[in-house]
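In the current project phase, the collection of sequences with tokenised folds has grown. A sample record is quoted in full directly below:
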Amino acid sequence: MPRIQLDEDVRSLSEFKAKAGSFIEKVRKTKRPIVLTQNGKSAAVLIDVAEYESLLEKLELLTEIRIAEEQIERGEFLDHEAAKMKVLEKIKV
């Protein structure tokens, strides 16, 4: 995901309300998120749908890796031969 440019990508909620269409178009075009502020504090982030989906996929993969590492630490894994036999059993080759 492209990095936020503070001088361009941090906007007030009132400005967003007035220019929502142009904000959405900017996010689609640049792929950079826009941070919306309310009362001078960050309140929300507007992000392109494809970028959001990509973040979710990465988060899911990292979560699966963490779970696998924990399983390995507990000794809950199959060696290559055992895994191969289990797969072959399922496809009955």
Remarks:
- The longest strand covers residues 41-46.
- The chain has five helices and three strands.
- The helical segments are 6-9, 13-18, 20-30, 49-73, 80-91.
- The chain has a mean pLDDT of 93.
